[in-house]
Amino acid sequence: MKNFIYLIIIKNFIEAFNLGVNLSDLISKRKITFDELKGRVVAIDAYNALYQFITIIRGASGEPLMDSRGRITSHLSGLLYRTSNLIEKGIKPIYVFDGKPPALKEVELKRRLTIKEEAIIKYEEAIKRGALEEARKYAQMSAKLKDEMVEDAKQLLNLLGVPWIQAPSEGEAQAAFIAAKGDAWCASSQDYDSLLFGAPRLVRNLTISGKRKLPKKNVYIEVELELIELDKVLKELGLSREQLIDLAILIGTDYNPEGIKGIGPKTALKLIKEYGKLEAIKIDGLPENFLEIREIFLKPKVEEQYVLKWGKPDVNGVIQFLCKERDFSESRVKTALEKMLSGLTQEKRTLESFFG
How far is CA 225 from CA 52, 75, 120, 189, 345, in A? Predict the structure, then answer.
């Protein structure tokens, strides 16, 4: 019974980072290892990853990592150490940043902002009561990714020699396009929306894999990589990609977050298989603009002319930016850079030649 409870907690922990349509009950996933990604290019949803870093990398009472000037550095810490780990394992990451979201996403963005504002109030109340575990939970819920934090992340990636792409709109759509074009083996995000945008493969948990402590318990769980293959999903469900999008609209997407009352994933699947498409379904609550929502997934705005170029890290630049300006431990940063160089050259190397 205890193991079953832990499995539920693990599932909830992972799904907490899923902000798009929730297809987890319908699609099959395969556990994979980092070895299966070796030598492959992975297009990572940068905003999704950075939100994970600023949510997870926090102090005992939920406070984010900060430098001596009060600037948040949790995202930089996560970006440095996770990226160095990936490159050490022979994986070539690309980070894809969100642009201007579609107008239809405004309702969902406002809803998320309201949740964060309410969480800040509850966080402050918990701190006053000395309820640190509760405070940490609300602090994580209130995490915000500000423009200057995004620019910091891009600067660090430049210094690390890791390519990043600015999407004109949804980062997931751009990552899916890169993967579908064959310039990346897969897209990486917690959101299943990547499949709706046409990613042939989706890898989940890439930036949160590893041991994670359960709230209020001295217990650690292992979060593993998951691979989802679009063709396999469509074949198992007996749907086309367009029908999968219609199914998602029934249960709710970022562009119609409420979905249709009373319709869950299994009912939505039954309806789509019976009627074929949304136009044929006579049901109350179907959004009038479902054609527009479908079009966002089928023909998203993407940057087609992009350049992917990896280089060696600018060691002195990274040290200056992270250690001199942001108060990172120089020894830890050097260790991360050694990992990167080891992965880039596929042989053991040190940084002695870079430091006097």
Answer: 15, 21, 31, 11, 25
Q: Distance between CA 332 and CA 337 in Å, rounded?
A: 9
Q: Given a cut of 70, is residue 347 above it in pLDDT?
A: no
- Per-residue burial over 305-334, b if 16 or more Cβ lie within 10 Å, else e, is ebeeeeeebbbeebbebbbeebebeeeebb
Q: What is residue 21's predicted lDDT score, i.e. its pLDDT?
A: 74
Per DSSP, the residues of 24-59 read TTTS--EEE-GGGGTT-EEEEEHHHHHHHHHHHSB-
CB 100 within 8 A of CB 18: no
What is the mean pLDDT of the segment spanning 283-298? 93
Strands (E), 207-316: 210-213, 220-223, 225-229
Q: What is the pLDDT of residues 154-168, one digit of tens each?
A: 999 999 999 999 999
pTM, whole model, 2 decimals? 0.85
Backbone CA torsion sign across 291, 295, 297, 298: positive
Distances in Å between the alpha carbon of 273 and those of 26, 266, 285, 315?
Answer: 14, 11, 19, 55
Please provide residue 268's backbone torsions phi and psi, each rounded to the nearest 5 degrees: -60, -40
DSSP letter (8 states) at residue 102 = P
Over range 219-225, report the average pLDDT: 80
Q: Whose CA is closest to 71, among 320, 319, 322?
A: 322
Q: Give the closest residue to 264 by CA, choosing from 25, 15, 13, 16.
A: 25
Candidates 158, 164, 88; CA nearest to 320 is: 158
Average pLDDT of the chain to the nearest whole number? 86
Pairing type for strands 41-45 and 92-97 reads parallel
- The SS3 call for residue 276 is coil
CB 197 within 8 A of CB 176: yes
Tens digit of each residue's pLDDT (9 = 90 or more) over 171-190: 999 999 999 999 999 999 99
